[in-house]
Write a structure and sequence with these properties.
Length: 140
């Protein structure tokens, strides 16, 4: 016979009365990770549950589609903000990328973004791109 009792927004206790076993499972404090891109400034953002502990920090990794290994973004380790700039790591705008984030200080496994393609997903704003007035002609 199995009984389930909620004891908080993230904590569930499952009591297996017939076996006398108590198991505790904590759900993730991360809800969603996604890229946001304007003029090829590619930012991985994420959302958390409302009541995460105040000492929670985040780690970010990324990889190009098709690669097996995740790469660490060193500037985005043990950070407190809910975003990480991955523009340099995702500058090849014809490729596809993934980002992922993990929270430390609350229960969390890695949360991966959807596949991101900068060329198709970056929004463009006029006036923010610089146009060069210099033209270089070689071989004439």
């Amino acid at each position: 016979m199995e009984h389930e009792r909620k004891t908080g927004p993230h904590l569930q206790e499952v009591i297996l009365s017939s076996a006398g076993i108590v198991a505790t499972e904590r759900s993730s404090c991360l809800k969603r990770a996604a890229f946001s891109s304007t003029n090829f400034e590619n930012i991985l953002t994420w959302e958390t549950e409302a009541d995460i502990p105040p000492d929670t920090v985040f780690d970010v990794q990324y990889k190009q589609y098709g690669e097996k290994s995740w790469l660490t973004k060193h500037e985005c380790q043990s950070i407190t903000q809910l975003f990480c700039n991955l523009s340099r790591e995702t500058e090849n705008f014809t490729e596809h990328f993934y980002g992922r984030v993990r929270a430390r200080g609350c229960s969390s496994s890695w949360l991966r973004s959807e596949r991101f393609e900068p060329r198709k997903e970056s929004r463009y704003h006029r006036g923010t791109l610089q146009r060069s007035s210099h033209c270089s002609l070689t071989g004439l």
